[in-house]
């Protein structure tokens, strides 16, 4: 997934080639947005890279709704730096049916482009697959996630990753599953977050 990108992914302006010796040595990923475009994104305070401002809103729309897959490279350098960890990265899963419609796994793709290893410890369960749960479980919780089959979370450290945090409900539900399954610790990190 490591790809040479020579033009800004958002405006198409030519990017200054950065070929310093330390960049080659550290194997760091080169920027994919020009300085002008990049300056529209606002760094977040905690547990997220950026705030959900107008630039991020437009970016998410172009990436997720319009399906501009190439944009997955936009923040690869920052993500690689932020998620340098010994914890297991767990992307928020999309439901398989939804995946078919969208044709690509947007959250996974962000990690792929940043060269970040991750494991799917969670599966998404929706109406059509509610049969996977028994009646008591269905009644007990509205949690759309279950622990992935054949996965043990016991004693492990996790960082749950998603592209956006709004109310935090999705992340909390995902964390609950891992915690209930015996995780030693569960943290979260997102590309963007609304400052509520
Ligand atoms: Zn640009």
TrEMBL record:
<keyword id="KW-0418">Kinase</keyword>
<dbReference type="InterPro" id="IPR051910">
    <property type="entry name" value="ComF/GntX_DNA_util-trans"/>
</dbReference>
<feature type="domain" description="Phosphoribosyltransferase">
    <location>
        <begin position="150"/>
        <end position="191"/>
    </location>
</feature>
<dbReference type="Pfam" id="PF00156">
    <property type="entry name" value="Pribosyltran"/>
</dbReference>
<protein>
    <submittedName>
        <fullName>Ribose-phosphate pyrophosphokinase</fullName>
    </submittedName>
</protein>
<dbReference type="GO" id="GO:0016301">
    <property type="term" value="F:kinase activity"/>
</dbReference>
<comment type="similarity">
    <text>Belongs to the ComF/GntX family.</text>
</comment>
<dbReference type="InterPro" id="IPR000836">
    <property type="entry name" value="PRTase_dom"/>
</dbReference>
<dbReference type="InterPro" id="IPR029057">
    <property type="entry name" value="PRTase-like"/>
</dbReference>
<keyword id="KW-0808">Transferase</keyword>
